[in-house]
NAD(P)-dependent dehydrogenase (Short-subunit alcohol dehydrogenase family) (Pseudarthrobacter defluvii), 253 residues
Amino acid sequence: MSTPQQVRRVAVVTGAGSGIGREVARQMLADGYCVALAGRREAQLKETADGSPDALVVPCDVTRPDDVERLFEAARQQWGRVDVLFNNAGVFGPAAGVDEISLADWNATLAVNLTGSMLCAAAAVRAMKAQEPQGGRIINNGSISAHSPRPRTVAYTVTKHAMTGLTKSIELDGRGYGITCGQIDIGNTATEIMDTIGVGSGALQADGSRKVEPMFPVADAARVVLMMANMPASASVGSLVVTAAGMPFIGRG
């Protein structure tokens, strides 16, 4: 009697060229996933793949609908389905208050963080509805800023608050198709974006001072994403917050 062949799980990870996206993609590959790696810079995606036969490098700008459709079609052509989307691509945007930010900078931040996330989720849902068996899981990368903003981060903060609404809407509308959607809100994991806001050297606080804040390894954040991805279809993690111990989040301000 032949042994049943193990079903390969297929994931799409956006923003896979660096930071949390890179680490999540690598941990998924190590866990047995087939992973489509999406991002604007092909060379960095190839570094993430590191020659894995289960990685598919797909250069993609998530603000371009045609790029997003090509990404998901590439995953389906390669492996026949999409089981997980880690909706991770994002930018921090300019340091500015609402009276200072230019319309161009505002639109650019929303285009990546919000519209790009919507386009990827929409493509994932279409794929998950069309496949047999139906269903899948979307994990949106929110932020601690979905709960409490940093000073002078109006565009970024608005996109992350909006991400929560996107997450809840996808979860509700996907129920009849076996599609779940959850959001992970990460605070102060050690990635390049933390350098841009000075977390390690002195991040701007609500009272105008600057403070060195604790950080935690990106591998630990990625393990939490992998845990969410590996939940059984009968369960969904709708919202999860993970931060560096002692960072100024509870009591911020």
Remarks:
- The longest strand covers residues 179-187.
- The first helix runs from residue 19 to 30.
